[in-house]
């Protein structure tokens, strides 16, 4: 911050003082009466530079009320801190006083004394001294029973337990044991969670059930040392190297600290099919009609605030192989123009299309301009990530039970089928293990194609989800498109 502050006038200085205006002139001069008039005609002002370092603060954690009212803002991304357990401490031990058994002792007493004095030894005959327990590791794993990351906003710090200390009472014996190792702290997250370090390095993409990653290692336990008189050390060195030489060796007894890291968790919904379209186009109604999902359905825009998942049953005509044709569908919140720039709810959820193999564009055939609505959604997908338009997709013209829609259905179908090129090479989806972050537009100097340069839809189907008209035909097209996607992947 710059501020202009007038400095103390040199006219206020005593007349006998010598003043050096080195900031303005390299020649000192004396303020005398003869010069006073010349000085009064000059106004010297200094410049004071004041700089303030602004510290960027992390956004405050959402309040419980915000988590309830605005779950869609927090359900798919969170920053947490995890700390592995410290290692347990070792001990400084002494050898017990071992007096030679006298001949007066009976055979039973001599055997008992010999048994007590036997220590644990390695294969080479050296003594085995107890160690402190290993600190607990921290593992994050994919759990099918989890569906959001909201719980991590309520508890953002997770600590594993420390290892147990060596409990030897200061004397080495055959009963001395290692400290107990601490259990591993296992943290469940939803399928599709990407685990990154806070600064951006990818650690794991937990896309499948049972996938896991160790994000923090527990500390090693401390070792135990033998303390004995100086004249015995040389002899004991042949039995073990853990003989304490001076007090500085005691640092080896302490367990090592566990790792502490800050992590960014990002949820990318795992689904085979993504339903996209403008608000109130009928995506949630379609999902509820063909799966057992029960999303919120109403006659106003943005009813869907969070992605809804549903399971599409297999094709009965395939017989025993019908289960191979099952698929997961994701109903995403409606996109509006400018969604890729953060308008509406689109930008928050466009990342969830990343794993989909097939897109279903749901268009309201009774809207004022259905073709323009279709183009609007495709344009938002293109601006966010052009790869989304390279994937196989079909177009569902919904609400054909309305007279206005059924009349222009043939023209709409023909016009939409003409949008795009005849290119047949389709991108069936990005790899699940990709470490590339969400695309936010074109990267580098890659040429941006127009909508007409991307592939045409595989099919355009007119349906009425609410009335159940032509639903079977739509399902047939979806299953056929999914089979072609899987065939391309397997080949």
From TrEMBL:
Residues 95-106 have a biased composition (Polar residues). GO terms for biological process: ribosome biogenesis. Residues 90-118, 423-449 are annotated as: Disordered. Signal peptide: none annotated. GO terms for cellular component: mitochondrion. Keywords: GTP-binding, Nucleotide-binding. Residues 271-483 form the OBG-type G domain. GO terms for molecular function: GTP binding; GTPase activity. Transmembrane segments: none annotated. Residues 72-270 form the Obg domain. It comes from the Eukaryota. PANTHER family: DEVELOPMENTALLY REGULATED GTP-BINDING PROTEIN-RELATED (PTHR11702), GTP-BINDING PROTEIN OBGC2-RELATED (PTHR11702:SF39). NCBIfam families: small_GTP (TIGR00231). This is GTP-binding protein OBGC2. The lineage of its organism: Eukaryota, Viridiplantae, Streptophyta, Embryophyta, Tracheophyta.
């Amino acid at each position: 911050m710059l501020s202009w502050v007038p400095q103390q006038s040199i006219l206020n200085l005593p007349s006998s003082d010598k003043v050096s205006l080195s900031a303005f002139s390299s020649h000192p001069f004396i303020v005398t009466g003869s010069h006073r008039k010349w000085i009064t005609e000059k106004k010297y002002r200094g410049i004071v530079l004041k700089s303030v370092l602004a510290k960027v603060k992390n956004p405050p954690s959402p309040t419980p009320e915000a988590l309830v009212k605005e779950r869609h803002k927090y359900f798919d991304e969170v920053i947490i801190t995890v700390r592995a357990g410290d290692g347990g401490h070792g001990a400084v031990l002494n050898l017990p006083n071992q007096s030679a058994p006298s001949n007066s002792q009976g055979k039973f007493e001599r055997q008992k004394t010999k048994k007590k004095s036997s220590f644990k030894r390695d294969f080479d005959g050296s003594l085995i001294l107890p160690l402190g327990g290993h600190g607990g590791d921290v593992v994050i794993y994919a759990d099918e029973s989890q569906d959001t990351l909201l719980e991590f906003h309520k508890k953002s710090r997770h600590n594993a337990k420390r290892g147990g200390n060596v409990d030897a009472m200061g004397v080495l014996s055959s009963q001395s044991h290692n400290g107990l190792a601490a259990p591993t702290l296992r943290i469940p997250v939803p399928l599709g969670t990407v685990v990154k370090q806070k600064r951006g390095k990818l650690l794991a993409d937990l896309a499948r059930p049972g996938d896991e990653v160790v994000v923090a290692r527990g500390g090693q336990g401390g070792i135990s040392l033998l303390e004995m008189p100086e004249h015995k050390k040389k002899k004991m060195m042949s039995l073990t190297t853990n003989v304490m030489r001076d007090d500085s060796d005691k640092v080896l007894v302490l367990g090592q600290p566990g790792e502490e890291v800050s992590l960014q968790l990002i949820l990318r919904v795992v689904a085979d099919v993504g339903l996209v379209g403008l608000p109130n186009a009928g995506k949630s109604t379609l999902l509820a009609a063909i799966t057992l999902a029960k999303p919120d359905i109403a006659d106003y825009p943005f009813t869907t605030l969070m992605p809804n998942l549903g399971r599409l049953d297999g094709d009965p005509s395939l017989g025993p192989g019908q289960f191979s044709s099952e698929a997961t569908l994701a109903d995403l919140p409606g996109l509006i123009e400018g969604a890729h720039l953060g308008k509406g709810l689109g930008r928050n959820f466009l990342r969830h299309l990343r794993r989909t193999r097939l897109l279903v564009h749901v268009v309201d055939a009774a809207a004022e301009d259905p073709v323009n609505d279709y183009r609007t959604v495709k344009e938002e997908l293109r601006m966010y990530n052009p790869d989304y338009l390279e994937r196989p997709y079909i177009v569902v013209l919904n609400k054909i039970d309305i007279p206005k829609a059924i009349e222009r259905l043939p023209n709409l179908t023909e016009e939409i089928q003409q949008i795009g090129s005849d290119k047949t090479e389709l991108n069936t989806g990005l790899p699940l293990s990709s470490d590339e972050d969400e695309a936010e537009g074109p990267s580098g100097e890659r040429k941006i194609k127009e909508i007409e340069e991307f592939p045409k839809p595989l099919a355009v189907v007119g349906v009425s989800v609410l009335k159940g008209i032509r639903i079977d035909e739509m399902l047939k097209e979806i299953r056929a498109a999914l089979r072609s996607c899987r065939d391309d992947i397997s080949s």
